[in-house]
């Protein structure tokens, strides 16, 4: 007797983009993958319209709200094609008995490498020079060497620890702040555990690696408390930084530079205050975009979707 085919609605355009393996796994497992658009995410109103026939949902940055779940009477599992589940109402899913799964660790190296690329870009003004040269200029832009400087890593999970390792390879000292990681686990990596206030006061480079928690972590006061001339890098979540306060800190010269790959509203709106801030590198939330991470991420969530649809517990439950 054949297994009845179920439907997996895929709303992220990056699922299986660099390897057919995740798509094939779902199809061969009887989970009928469907992606309405190949080149962009599914708009929210269309998500509400299409979710009614889905047994599983594979989402990217889509807002998976209680309203979405209530529009899906057949929905049995929600999978985040990524790590952070802050765009999914996990509590609402739990109340409805719908497991939420994700792909922890699948993109850690990709994000960590990209983060350190942003550190180098912000320090040595690589993108700024490129823009000037393409516009006909030939500037000699100066920026500090990283050797002998101090990096402050806020959030010392998988990605933060990898970034710390890259920083040490450049001869940097490492400060780490993470209230959920014991001090001895931090010191075992040759990093110094410190409070957030101490990190901001001492670090030449501050990089963020944690989920948002309501109000921005770095507001006007905390940006002002950063070491004068410091560099800020955020390849985690946009809600961690007050955009207006950051723009002001760059305009005033209090911060030497910043580099951001995540924003509270994406795509970044035209006329946004960050678009005109000086010494700022902006990229389109692409830190996790490597073929290796894309394949690993897709396979992890596809496997858990099939497990849940088969009545088995997921390996990577969130929340």
From TrEMBL:
Pfam families hit by this protein: 2-Hacid_dh (PF00389), 2-Hacid_dh_C (PF02826)
NAD is among the record's keywords: yes
Key word NAD present: yes
Annotated keywords: Amino-acid biosynthesis, NAD, Oxidoreductase
Superkingdom field: Bacteria
Location of the D-isomer specific 2-hydroxyacid dehydrogenase catalytic domain: 34-317
Residues of the D-isomer specific 2-hydroxyacid dehydrogenase NAD-binding domain: 116-287
Family named by the database record: Belongs to the D-isomer specific 2-hydroxyacid dehydrogenase family.
PANTHER family per the UniProt record, alphabetical: D-ISOMER SPECIFIC 2-HYDROXYACID DEHYDROGENASE FAMILY PROTEIN (AFU_ORTHOLOGUE AFUA_6G10090)
Protein name: Phosphoglycerate dehydrogenase
């Amino acid at each position: 007797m054949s297994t009845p085919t179920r439907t997996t609605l895929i709303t992220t355009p990056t699922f299986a983009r660099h390897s057919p393996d995740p798509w094939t796994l779902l199809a061969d497992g009887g989970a009928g993958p469907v992606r309405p658009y190949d080149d962009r995410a599914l708009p929210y109103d269309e998500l509400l319209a299409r979710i009614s026939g889905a047994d599983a949902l594979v989402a990217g940055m889509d807002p998976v709200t209680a309203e979405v779940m209530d529009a899906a009477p057949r929905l049995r599992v929600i999978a985040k094609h990524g790590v952070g589940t802050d765009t999914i109402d996990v509590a609402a899913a739990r109340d409805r008995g719908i497991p939420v799964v994700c792909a922890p660790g699948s993109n850690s190296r990709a994000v960590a490498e990209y983060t350190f690329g942003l550190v180098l870009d912000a320090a040595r003004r690589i993108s700024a020079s490129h823009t000037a040269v393409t516009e006909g200029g030939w500037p000699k832009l100066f920026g500090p060497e990283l050797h002998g400087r101090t990096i402050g890593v806020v959030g010392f999970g998988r990605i933060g620890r990898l970034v710390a390792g890259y920083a040490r390879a450049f001869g940097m000292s490492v400060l780490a702040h993470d209230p959920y990681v014991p001090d001895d686990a931090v010191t075992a990596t040759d990093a110094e555990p410190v409070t957030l206030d101490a990190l901001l006061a001492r670090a030449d480079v501050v990089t963020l690696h944690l989920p948002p928690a309501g109000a921005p972590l770095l507001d006007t006061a905390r940006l002002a408390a950063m070491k004068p001339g410091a560099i800020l890098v955020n390849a985690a979540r946009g809600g961690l930084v007050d955009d207006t306060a950051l723009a002001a800190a760059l305009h005033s010269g209090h911060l030497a530079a910043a580099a951001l790959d995540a924003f509270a509203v994406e795509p970044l709106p035209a006329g946004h205050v960050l678009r005109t801030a000086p010494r700022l590198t902006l990229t389109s939330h692409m830190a996790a975009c490597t073929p290796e991470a894309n394949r690993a991420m897709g396979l992890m969530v596809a496997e858990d979707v099939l497990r849940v649809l088969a009545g088995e517990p997921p390996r990577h439950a969130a929340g």
